[in-house]
């Protein structure tokens, strides 16, 4: 079933687990993600960003397919706009059928972040769509971001931000970064700050830059109160690794064989990750109708 993100993450917040959010850039990725969730009896979030939609995942083509797959699923599926930067992008996402909007004004001054987020939240909530925002800033792994606490989320500011914007979930900066980390590097997360944020906010918190963070960090983050984890690079890598192995073993493999191989690899990766973050067998009927877009 296609739902918004609020009930999904409220249940995760209440029961102490996280829901996986996978950037999916084509039909095969989206299908692998949803089928993995179905088989693991887990809620799931399919998401894409503006750059991904511009390059490959053209919303007018791919979103109707994903929506149909979500509506047929036996588990709750949310369709999330990842890192929407401005009002036109958010409005377009509503028209295209997204059930959650992330508004990312985290690189702007605090007051402007509040203002933009409040506008999007009011608009989205009026249409039954949930909202995620970001405070602090999760940068790019390739640039060395996430290694300094200069951009980490401030606890007092976070309380004020949530009160003034009314968002349903907050992405926090505690040491991760987007993209691929340098070989051998594992980020050091500020779990003390995470504990302070959770105690002060008592709401669903989001970890961006889940890829490459290491299983122990992910487990500790979930135990500390993270309820949604964004994953992109690791899912891409699972597909790439499987495709390369297929070509090496069977050089004459055609396009169909490669795509089947990639989809199977993503599905296996997502199933493993679902178990890691505790959302397997967590689909419960107490929030099934909360925000349903069927």
Helix count, per DSSP?
11
CATH class: Alpha Beta
Q: Whole-Å distance between the termini?
A: 7 Å
CATH fold-type name: TIM Barrel
Mean pLDDT over all positions: 91
Gross geometry: globular
> Fraction of residues in helices?
40-55%
Specify the CATH homologous superfamily.
Aldolase class I
Reading the helices and strands in chain order gives HEHEHHEHEHEHEHEHEHH
Radius of gyration: 18 Å
Number of domains: 1
- What ranges have pLDDT less than 50 throughout 5 or more consecutive residues? 140-146
- What is the makeup of the main sheet? 8 strands, parallel, barrel
- β-strand percent reads 5-15%
Number of strands: 8
Q: Main sheet: which strands, in order across?
A: 1-2-3-4-5-6-7-8
Structural class: alpha/beta
């Amino acid at each position: 079933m296609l739902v918004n993100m609020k009930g999904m993450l409220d249940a995760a917040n209440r029961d102490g687990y996280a829901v996986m959010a996978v950037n999916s850039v084509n039909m095969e990725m989206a299908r692998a993600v949803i089928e993995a969730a179905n088989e693991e009896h887990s809620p799931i979030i399919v998401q894409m960003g503006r750059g991904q939609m511009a390059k490959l995942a053209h919303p007018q083509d791919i979103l109707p397919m994903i929506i149909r797959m979500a509506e047929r699923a036996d588990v709750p599926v949310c369709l999330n706009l990842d890192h929407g930067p401005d009002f036109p992008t958010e409005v377009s996402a509503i028209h295209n059928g997204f059930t959650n909007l992330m508004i990312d004004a985290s690189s702007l001054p605090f007051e402007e972040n509040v203002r933009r987020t409040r506008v999007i939240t009011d608009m989205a909530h009026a249409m039954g769509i949930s909202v995620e925002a970001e405070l602090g800033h999760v940068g790019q792994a390739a640039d060395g971001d996430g290694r300094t606490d200069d951009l980490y989320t401030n606890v007092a500011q976070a309380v004020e931000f949530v009160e003034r914007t009314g968002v349903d979930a907050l992405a926090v900066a505690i040491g991760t970064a987007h993209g691929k980390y340098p070989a051998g590097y594992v980020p050091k997360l500020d779990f003390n700050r995470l504990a302070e944020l959770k105690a002060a906010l008592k709401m669903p918190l989001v970890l961006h830059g889940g890829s490459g963070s290491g299983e122990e960090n992910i487990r500790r983050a979930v135990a500390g109160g993270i309820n949604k984890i964004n994953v992109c690079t690791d899912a891409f890598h699972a597909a790439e690794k499987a495709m390369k192995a297929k070509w090496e073993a069977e050089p004459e493999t055609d396009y169909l064989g490669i795509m089947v191989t990639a989809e199977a690899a993503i599905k296996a990766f997502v199933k493993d990750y679902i178990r890691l973050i505790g959302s397997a067998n967590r689909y419960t009927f107490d929030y099934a109708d909360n925000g349903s877009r069927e």
